[in-house]
Amino acid sequence: MSAAQIEIQMVAAVVAVACALPGAFLVLRGMAMMSDAISHAILPGIVAGVLLTGSLHSPFLILAAALTGLLTTVLVETINNTGQVKEDAAIGIVFPVLFSLGVVMIAKFAGDMHLDTDAVLLGELAFAPFNRFTVFGYDLGPQALWIMGSVLAVNAFFLLLFYKELKLATFDPSLASSLGFRPRPLHYALMGLVSLTAVSAFDAVGSILVVALMVGPPATGYLLTDRLDVLIGLSAGIGIGNAVLGYWGAHLLDASIAGAMATTTGIAFGAAVMCAPKRGLVAQWRRRRRQRWTFAEQMLSIHLRQHENTPEANRECRIEHLQEHLNWEPDFAQRVVSYASKKGTIRRENGHLSLTEDGRAVAQDAATRT
Amino acid sequence: MPPSSDSNPAALSVRDLTVAYQEEPVLWDIDLTVPSGVLMGIVGPNGAGKTTLLQAILDIVPPAAGQVRIFGAPYEEQRHRVGYVPQRGSVDWDFPTNALDVVLMGLYGRLGWIRRPGTDEREEAYAALEKVGMADYADRQISQLSGGQQQRVFLARALVQEADLYFMDEPLQGVDATTERAIFDILRTLQKRDCTVVAVHHDLQTVPEYFDHVMLLNVRRIASGPVEEAFTEENLRRTYGGRVGFLKQQDMGTTAPDGSEETEPS
Amino acid sequence: MIDLFSQLLTDYTLRTVALGAATLGIVGGGLGSYAVLRGQSLLGDAISHAALPGVALAFLITGSKAPLPLMLGAAFTGVLATLIIIGVTNTTRVPYDSALALMLSVFFGVGLVLLTYLQQHAGAAQAGLDSFLFGQAAALVEQDVVTMAVLGGVALLVMLLFWKEFKILAFDPAFGRSLGFPIRALDVALTTLLVIAIVIGLQTVGVVLMSAIIVAPAAAARQWTDQLGAMVALAAVFGAVSGISGAFVSGTTANLPTGPTIVLCMGSIVVVSLVIAPNRGLFWMWWNQRRTSQRLRRERVLCYLYTLARKHEHPKYAHEAATLDALVSGSTRTTYVLRQLAEAGFVSRTEKGKWHLTDMGIEEAHRLAKSRNLISDFPPTEDERSTD
Q1: Rounded CA gap, C174 and B84, in Å?
Q2: Contacts of A121 in chain C (CB under 8 A)
Q3: What confidence score (pLDDT) does residue B5 get?
Q4: Of the candidates C25, C5, C8, C19, which has an alpha carbon nearest to the alpha carbon of residue C265?
Q5: CATH no. for residue C217?
Q6: Can you tell me the mean pLDDT for C179-200?
Q7: What is the predicted ipTM?
């Protein structure tokens, strides 16, 4: 591994963690698409910053773009609050309009600057090691690492400080406000962090990867844990893993690094959807298969119990009847009956089915459980 | 014997119906027979599966097991004889359409694919709006109707279906007292025309007054039948848990065990 | 004006771009109306991003840059992404918007990988594929516009044919199913039409801005009408107008890209519609609110006069405006309200500057009091009491 390769991976890992922290809350608050909206809508802010400062790397640029991100949030809410346009439609209008504004500004005023739409969308991580951060002639590593490290620090500090408040405001906004925690300023602060992170990350990884890194790891972690603190830790870890694996994937294929990282994010998510221990599709399928038999046994015993000692018992409590009324295939009915008689919950006499004491207990248990 | 072998089959007969979301059953082994021509109320606590029961009968949610017969035949064959009034909250009332147009939707099933409603259908829909007292509002955007008026529009949409069996999900939710009366007058009229109505209902107080049959549901069927037989203190306690101990069987109109309403004993 | 018009007829590039933009606007606006009403406004954004790998794949397979195979490839991955989003939402606890954002970025990332891979291995042959995605209206040729028009026309035709079915799908799917319509199939069909509307626009406005083409004309149209048919038609008109004017403005101004210009036109239409559309516009709502509060103030003054008069057992007993001021929330504008009432003939002024009810006013006040169940008394409200 060359020094540049290590540096690229370090930058990517820092970006991944910086994105995962606010991202976890975006996912939980049902505002994942705001990451997409903000990461596009900051373009006019970036352009304005570049035009005013004449540099692509001024801190003022970050401020201008972060303010544009907040403006996006405010605009979306204002339009939504008119009660005439739903929130998703408001998002779907605001960010393309702001993005268009940015593109037009570039075309009109900043044609000669090194700034084009592709760069904002796609980023170029491979260039990250070329911009060095030097103090008094000492090379302190890639500039992007320092910028993203600072953003990560801000995000982590904010989360540590307001963890409890954010948790409450996410879970139960009305309770939070009744306790005096003011979810609205908190909401804007979170959106401010999203903007700050998106704008700082854009020239390293591009806006699309920002979305992938903000939403992907938390969504993946959400399938693996029920605890918020674990979710945040997992998101950071998964983010780093996706970034590093993505980097080597890109290296292997000689393809876009940002694209490869988004791809590994997708693969990790897909793996979690399939194989997550409790919530994965495989686990769901196996549980359903296992429960199919106990469920069928319960249904059978409840059915028998309901018709026990009733005049129609003779008709209801026969195996043929199960086929007809429980929609069971003849074969399946036979197997359920064998399964239940083996377990000793039912008795079979000349085709007439009756419950044993155990069977009655099963029926009782199932009935009270529901 | 199964009702299908009767010469005059029950309007609705449900056998061993079970519905499960994920692994948890929401409806467990429901048996229910609704004779033709009755008004039946379905009551039960929140999460008892009332809406799910209607949707399973109407094949909107797939049952895990069980069988549904409408007038002795599967629902698929009897669809044209069934009308449905979903919960008012289930649709977006800001949808760009007017009251008459919503009522016209009730005729889409009869029209079949691609054919559009014409003048005849519009007249029919208008007549239905007249029956529910909403003819003046035919051109009104639906978001500009009050809750009670929206409910009447839904009812009119069901009326144009000219069904024999109606399923209504909380037709009285969020309507004022006058509308409640009006709606029940319409249901009575339906009953006089030999229609059968099965309605999810939330107000226990008015059950004896409005319905002649009742089903008490809490995942399982606790009881069903004529109100005077099934709507007992014992059954209500089994449906709602211990909270209804004070309900007097003789004087059913006094307390609402779902805890939301309170009235003085008369 | 005539200049512009003749330019449209003679300038090949401008005409092609304008026609393409108009097609895109009509189809996007029309089908976008359904997307907006069904709460799928952001699905368009996901679909347009998900088109990228499809375009790359289509090129990889066919080796052709003709619009039709590229659009079909784009449509394929667009539909695939939609199905995955729906599947993930239905089978896991991941919420819809997260699934949307995730699939959007993942598909786009896969597309980028494919595109850069092609760059390395197919050499210059793939050049121009990215213009398909980031929008380069100026590069549109006649063949592109014809493909757009045919695909879009078919999509609109299908929408019109199944108008009634799609309407019930959008308004009340559970009821539609109870009528026997295959709601799921209709859902897939309508979403596929939306995908078509999106892929035919990518070349003109690009991936990022496509969302606006779907959402903006529809949201603007909703402000002006309460009927689905009119909304769809109006959205198509707004889309076409924005498309053509965007093409014009950018075609006749130096350094103005077409796609963003179209989107900015749409944005302006949305803002104007939000503000001035009758009934739903903000200005209109503000005006209505003002009128209502004025009417309520008049009615309150009328009722107070009536109460005071009843206390004096003489219905036309005259009062100082200041007496009423004290009663009506300490407002000092009572005189203004009284003048309005006088104009309507409900009160009149004595020579001493006192006010009393007229016969008409008594009748009106009585009617009001009765309709509000206030016949016996008008107890002052909390804040009125505190200002007393």
Answers
A1: 9
A2: 134, 208
A3: 44
A4: C25
A5: 1.10.3470.10
A6: 93
A7: 0.86
